[in-house]
Structures are given as structure tokens and as C-alpha cells.
Specification:
Elements: E1 3-8, H1 12-23, E2 28-32, H2 49-58, H3 61-65, E3 77-80, E4 87-91, H4 120-132, E5 137-141, E6 143-150, E7 155-161, E8 168-177, H5 184-189, E9 193-208, H6 211-214, E10 224-228, E11 233-238, E12 244-250, H7 263-271, E13 280-294, E14 298-299, E15 302-304, E16 310-311, H8 319-339, H9 348-377, H10 390-411, H11 414-418, E17 457-458, E18 461-462, E19 471-475, H12 483-486, E20 492-496, E21 509-513, E22 518-522, H13 529-536, H14 547-550
């Protein structure tokens, strides 16, 4: 074998998969068609709290948090008629230096790692540096994936340098396509996208101009400014808080010709400036918004993750973040197999867990986009909206109230970060209890198996920092003998802790995965410990297995 895992694509998703597997001791090869010197995209500008928790485990959370916007630059979301024009409403969010202050929408989130507003431009170099520091990860830039064949023992992948036709083969255990929406790996797998092929069309332009910052005047500057006026509907994102800005302009509904949005004039209309305002266009991308989820995430030893598996409109900033969650879910499962403690059946959990969830999240994003479209995008914006007179102020105030109510959840997506759960996973024993529902902006903490473990501290240390690389057994009652489980075939870290006061922690024992999802709970070990161990490692259950054998107590879920 040339490597246990071959990753195709070194964007944030593929890089995180390789880092996670590399940190687990698995040998990985990554091929990327871009040059190592090619500048990264500025597409994604939010790093979710759950993603920051992953980066905490990678050891790079502090470095990520300190990149991007200046310490004092706010992460507000502003709704206005232009960057320089009258405001409709504002969602006030903290700068890095304000992060410890109370009173923001996300101040009480249950995590030591709040979300970070930061461009992919600054994130990718940090991830790349982490990747290159791992001795068991090989990185091959300017190399494209051509094709693959698989058999019972592995995958033979054909690759070639982008500057030559000298094809070569790599023999690997598993191959993962993290190669974007036009994924060659997905197409070779015969996997099809399902959903909405076109929702919107957008022109996105990265510009350089120190003058944009000055357009906020004496007002608190914004990280993101949503714009609606009679000439353009747009969105402006602060990339470095100084002179780099990403300007999105939407085509009118039903319009297909990108050139109907004048490249330069539409930027001026969004900024609210005249012909003498200077800016430099660094690059432009025209793109189509879609809501698509692959009908399968796996074909034998081949998998897809990130945009190769799902695409949706970038509401709540969860596209890249969902892809990174795919990547680390799959890397853990693959590493378990290649490390020898798990059965190959554990890999069935990837599609069973991630496909339904990504479909669910894509629908939440779609619903939020449609809610905003009903308020602004589908409407003809009257000229009075930009008037500084009394009627203009009244119209802006009324629309602003509606926009604020519609978008707090999008800009502070607590539910998307902490509320989602895995149902019908083959490695989470049947428990007969329903996890609490969640929406984009809210969730109910729960230890029902499949849910995220509610955060707490052990001796002043975040439980995140006490979790093991595979499974952790949290014991709130030290009188329970857990040796028969932790000394079995499944790798466990045992954490003895004082039970938190939150009544959600009603069970004496919790089994938690490294991704913080609860796998099992009870007040004593089950009668068939071997059956529990087998399921946790993805091995086939014996005919004697029953859900009752794995349950020690059934209570009302919290």
C-alpha cells in the first residue's frame, strides 16, 4: 500500500480529513490540482463553533481565532440601502476584543469555542501548515485524480501531474473525494445529486479599497452588510477589516445572464459611491446557488465529503463547516478500521449519519433564504427606501424589524451548532427515545444517544479536553465497576467526574464519541457488554442481540 487513505482535494474539507487521520496515526496521501502557491478562495467567511471545537482538538484553535479581522473590528451584520447609506437594522456581534463581554446573541453558547468570522483566505494557510507538519501525511500539489478501480483489498487510483501526461498509480485502502461540486470522484462512483438544481445566481467579486472602511463613517463598522436598493441587491463582507472586501450581487429572479449585473457599476451601487471612488478588482466569480445532496455518500471503498456530497446556498455559513464535520466523522471511522480495533462495518455509519443530516441542514438553509427572499429579494425595492425623509425612515424601520426577526437565528445559529443529532446510526444502540427537536437558532441540551454531549467542566477543565480520541466513558458514580467494558476490545478513556447540576445529566454513565455525540447512556453496564462493544466497533451483532440487552434504563429524554 502507498497509503491507507487517499484524499482527493486539499480545500478545508480534504485537509481536515487528512489532518484528523494523520493525528490518529494513519498514513494519508493528499492530491490537489492547484499549486501550493495558489491563493485560497474567500468564499466561506464563518467558522462554526463545532468546527472551532475540532480545531481545538487539532491544536490550532488559538491560531485560527487570531487570524483575519483586527481585534477591535466588530462582527455585526448590518442591513442597509448601501454601505454608505441609511441602515434598516443591525445584529450586533462582538469583535475579538469584546468576546468576553456579556450581552451578545451568542454569549451564552455552551462551548469554550464560539464561532469565528474569518475568511477562508486566512484559514486555509493555517490548515495547510498543520497538514505539512504531520510526518505520516504526504501532500502532492499540482496533481489531479484521473480514475480508480477497487477490489476486495483496496483501491488503485490513477493520478497525473497537471503539467505532464505522466500518469502514475497509487495503491490505497480507501479513497475520499473532497474535490468540490463538480467532483470527478463522485461522478466515477455513479452518484447523482438530488434536489434543486438552481435557486439563485450571484456575481461575487473580491476588491481592494481602503475607502470602503471609511464609508461607515462614525458608525460601528460591520463584518457583513446586506444591501437592498432600487439598483442592486447585494452583500458586502469584510475580509481583513481594512482594504479587502467581498461583494456579492444577486441577479433578479429568473434572470440567467450574469452580464445583466454590470461588474463595476453594481459594486458602486452596493457601496453607495460615485464614479470617482477607487477600488481594484482582484478576482470575480459568477456562480449558481443550489440545494443538492448526493443520493449516496459511498461506493465500497470510495467516499465523498463536503461539496462533493452536498451543495446549498450559503445561509448561516454552514457549507464548509458541514463539510468539515463530514470529514472528521469519516476520518475517525476510517482510522478505526485501519488501526485495527473496528470492524469494516463501522464505515456504514458515515452515510447513515451524515446524509440525512446534510439534507436536513440544507432545507433549513433553503427555508431561511426563502424567508429573506419574501422580504426583499423577490420584491421591487422602492426608491423611497433610500430617502432620508420621514417616510423613508418609517419604511426602513418597518422592514428592519422584519429583517431582524428573520435573521437573528441565521447570524447566531445555536441550533445548527449544538442541536443536530444522529438517528438510525448502526453504531448507536437502539434506545427507544426521541431526541429533542431543534431549529436554526435554538436547541434543547440532551444526553439522548445521538445528541451532542452538553458542555460541562471537570476540575475546571472543559470536557472537550478530557475526551479520548475514540470513545470516552464518563462516570458520575464511581461505585460502578466499569472494568469489563473499558478493558474490552473498544478503546476507551475513562473520565470520573462530579455530576453537573443540570438535570439533563440524570444517568450515571455516558459513552461519548470524540465528535462529542453521545453513543450510549445508563445507570449500570448492560447485561450483554460484549454486544455493546461489538456494536460500538461496527461488528455484526449476533442473533441473540436485542435492544433490551443494551438498555439499562429508559427514562423521559432530556
Amino acid at each position: 500500500m502507498d497509503a491507507s487513505i487517499l484524499v482527493v482535494g486539499a480545500g478545508p474539507v480534504g485537509t481536515c480529513l487528512a489532518i484528523d487521520a494523520g493525528l490518529r496515526g494513519v498514513d494519508v496521501t493528499v492530491v490537489e490540482s492547484r499549486s501550493a502557491e495558489d491563493p485560497p478562495d474567500a468564499k466561506c467567511n464563518t467558522i462554526a463553533s463545532r468546527t472551532m471545537e475540532i480545531f481545538r482538538r487539532f491544536g490550532i484553535a488559538d491560531q485560527v481565532r487570531e487570524a483575519g479581522l483586527p481585534d477591535a473590528y466588530p462582527t455585526d451584520t448590518l442591513y442597509a440601502t448601501s454601505v454608505s447609506g441609511p441602515e434598516l437594522t443591525r445584529i450586533v456581534m462582538p469583535s475579538r476584543s469584546e468576546r468576553s463581554h456579556p450581552g451578545f446573541y451568542d454569549s451564552e453558547w455552551p462551548t469554550p469555542e464560539p464561532m469565528v468570522r474569518e475568511s477562508q483566505m486566512w484559514l486555509e494557510p493555517i490548515l495547510r501548515q498543520c497538514l505539512l507538519s504531520l510526518p505520516n501525511v504526504r501532500f502532492l500539489p499540482e496533481t489531479e485524480f484521473v480514475s480508480s478501480t477497487q477490489d476486495a483489498d483496496g483501491v488503485t487510483a490513477v493520478c497525473r501531474p497537471v503539467k505532464t501526461d505522466d500518469e502514475f498509480e497509487l495503491r490505497v485502502g480507501h479513497l475520499i473525494g473532497c474535490d468540490g461540486g463538480s467532483s470527478r470522484v463522485r461522478k466515477q462512483m455513479g452518484v447523482r445529486f438530488q434536489g434543486d438544481g438552481e435557486i439563485s445566481r450571484t456575481r461575487s467579486t473580491l476588491i481592494r479599497s481602503a475607502g470602503v472602511r471609511e464609508l461607515f463613517g462614525s458608525r460601528r463598522p460591520a463584518w457583513m452588510t446586506w444591501i437592498a436598493n432600487s439598483r442592486v441587491k447585494a452583500n458586502v463582507v469584510a475580509i481583513d477589516g481594512q482594504d479587502l472586501w467581498l461583494v456579492h450581487r444577486a441577479l433578479d429572479p429568473g434572470e440567467t445572464d450574469f452580464e445583466t449585473v454590470d461588474l463595476e457599476q453594481s459594486i458602486r451601487d452596493a457601496l453607495g459611491v460615485g464614479p470617482n471612488f477607487d477600488f481594484e478588482i482582484i478576482r470575480n466569480e459568477d456562480w449558481v446557488g443550489r440545494r443538492l445532496v448526493a443520493d449516496r455518500f459511498r461506493d465500497g471503498r470510495l467516499f465523498v465529503a463536503g461539496d462533493a456530497a452536498h451543495l446549498w446556498v450559503p445561509f448561516a455559513g454552514y457549507g464548509m463547516n458541514a463539510g468539515i464535520a463530514d470529514a472528521t466523522n469519516l476520518s475517525w471511522l476510517l482510522s478505526a478500521v485501519h488501526s485495527g480495533w473496528a470492524d469494516a462495518g463501522i464505515l456504514d455509519a458515515y452515510e447513515a449519519e451524515r446524509q440525512p443530516l446534510t439534507d436536513q441542514v440544507s432545507r433549513l438553509a433553503m427555508a431561511k433564504m426563502e424567508e429573506n427572499a419574501d422580504l426583499v429579494a423577490k420584491q421591487r425595492v422602492p426608491r423611497i427606501l433610500t430617502s432620508r425623509g420621514l417616510i423613508g425612515r418609517i419604511v426602513r424601520r418597518r422592514l428592519g424589524r422584519k429583517l431582524l426577526a428573520a435573521n437573528i437565528a441565521q447570524m447566531s445559529p445555536e441550533g445548527l451548532n449544538f442541536g443536530y443529532y444522529y438517528e438510525d446510526s448502526p453504531i448507536i444502540p437502539d434506545h427507544g427515545q426521541t431526541p429533542p427537536t431543534y431549529d436554526m437558532g435554538s436547541h434543547v441540551p440532551s444526553t439522548v444517544p445521538g445528541c451532542r454531549l452538553p458542555h460541562f467542566s471537570v476540575d475546571g477543565i472543559s470536557i472537550l479536553d478530557r475526551l479520548g480520541p475514540d470513545y470516552t466513558l464518563i462516570r458520575f458514580n464511581q461505585s460502578i465497576d466499569v472494568a469489563p467494558l473499558v478493558q474490552g476490545p473498544v478503546p476507551f478513556v475513562l473520565v470520573d467526574a462530579v455530576r453537573p447540576t443540570d438535570p439533563v445529566f440524570e444517568h450515571d454513565l455516558l459513552i461519548v464519541r470524540s465528535d462529542t455525540h453521545v453513543a450510549w447512556r445508563g445507570n449500570d453496564l448492560p447485561g450483554r457488554i460484549d454486544e455493546l462493544s461489538q456494536q460500538l466497533r461496527g461488528a455484526p451483532a449476533s442473533s441473540a442481540t436485542s435492544s433490551a440487552a443494551l438498555q439499562t434504563i429508559v427514562t423521559t429524554p432530556h
